[in-house]
Specification:
By secondary structure, the protein is mainly α. The chain has 13 helices and five strands. The strands form two sheets. Strands 1-2-3 form a three-stranded parallel sheet. The chain has a two-stranded parallel ribbon with strand order 4-5. Helix 7 packs across helix 8. 38% of the residues are buried.
């Protein structure tokens, strides 16, 4: 039997933060050799909120370069840009026509983002999860490694598989493959540095709430120095009354590569004055090699373009085959 297939993606909105890295990309990298991998830069998703056309293309390149810098290995993985493969938009339309609108209106991320947009909510924001379902289903993905916040979108994808297969498939020969989410326990929900009850997010107006993968050592140190803590001495995991403490210890655990028991033991008697410099140093140490590799990749645009070209060349035939299968099942005439 061949390897199982993975599909995942990140939006090119600003650069990546530690939530994206620890919740998603780190897991892609760690498990990639077990799978056949497709990692896309989901630029069509990035325009579901107001975007800047002057930076969309360069932001997509930045994200692709960061995938490489974080350790994506092209021997088992493909990197491509979503909008370069038109099948993503086309399958979205087909799926739209079988998606009950109330499924989309109930999505947590839609409700949160729509609230922030006020009057100016585009149809694309409502449709975001259907485009994400198309991304996953086009590649017959077995597993979708993401952070916690994407779980509901993958559940919707699974519901769409059932619905489409029921309406247009035969039980012996399903049209679409059922994907499973791959969500790790540790790091699946990294919290804001300024409020341990809120998710670390690209859309938080405060830069101090997140550490970006490309932040300089000085900026990282400053953000950690200023981050929210509590007045209690001694640090511990999993105390619901100390969300910041749990989050910062989790960051230290994941960035240092130490296990939970070791970190709990090491930090049990520490005060914040001792812990914060330790966390800052650990974060800088973990991110420096990524930043060095990122610069190398960005300095060689031809190389990056060749990676994206090859990624598209490998991905597109799979996507087109699935699209043709769905159109056929839905009864469309074949192009002449
Ligand atoms: P995006 O760009 O918002 O997030 C990219 C990935 O980062 C994870 N993530 C987090 N994980 C832990 N803690 C956090 N604070 C945190 N913030 C973000 C997200 O769960 C995600 O895995 N809709 C997707 C992009 C997408 C996609 C796909 C993913 C489009 N099509 C197909 C998988 C498969 C998203 O949230 O992007």
């Amino acid at each position: 039997m061949g390897k199982q297939r993975i599909l995942s993606g990140v939006q090119p909105t600003g650069n990546l933060h530690l939530g994206n890295y620890l919740g998603a990309i780190r897991n892609w990298v760690e498990n990639q050799h077990q799978y056949e991998n497709y990692f896309c830069v989901v630029d069509l998703h990035a325009i579901t909120v107001p975007h800047n056309p002057a930076t969309l293309a360069s932001d997509s390149y930045t994200i692709a370069a960061l995938y490489l810098a974080c350790g994506i290995d092209l021997d088992c993985s493909n990197i491509f840009i979503q909008s370069h493969i038109s099948a993503h938009s086309e399958l979205t339309w087909l799926l739209n026509c079988i998606t009950p609108i109330n499924w989309l209106q109930g999505m947590i991320q839609f409700k949160e983002k729509a609230l922030k947009q006020g009057e100016n909510v585009g149809t694309g924001l409502l449709d975001y999860p259907v485009l994400m379902a198309a991304d996953i289903l086009l590649y017959d993905a077995d597993k979708v490694p993401v952070g916690e916040d994407q779980k509901q979108h993958i559940e919707l994808t699974r519901d769409l598989v059932i619905r489409l297969n029921d309406q247009f498939g035969d039980p012996e020969n399903p049209v679409l493959k059922m994907p499973d989410p791959l969500i790790r326990t540790d790091g699946a929900r990294i919290m804001s540095l300024t409020d341990g009850t809120k998710k670390m997010s690209k859309s938080d107006p405060s830069e101090m709430s997140r550490i970006n993968l490309l932040d300089s050592p000085d900026v990282i140190t400053k953000k950690i120095k200023k981050c929210k803590t509590d007045p209690v001495r001694g640090l511990e995991f999993d105390n619901p009354d100390r969300p910041e403490c749990n989050n910062l210890l989790t960051l230290y655990m994941l960035l240092s590569g130490k296990d939970k028991a070791t970190v709990a033991d090491e930090c049990a008697d520490m005060g914040w004055g001792q812990f914060k410099p330790l966390l800052a140093e650990t974060a800088v140490e973990a991110l420096t090699p990524i930043q060095t590799k990122y610069k190398e990749v960005m300095d060689d645009k031809e190389y990056l373009e060749s990676v994206l070209r090859r990624g598209r060349e490998n991905a597109e035939p799979i996507a087109q085959a699935t699209l043709a299968r769905v159109k056929d099942a839905m009864g469309f005439s074949k192009p002449l």
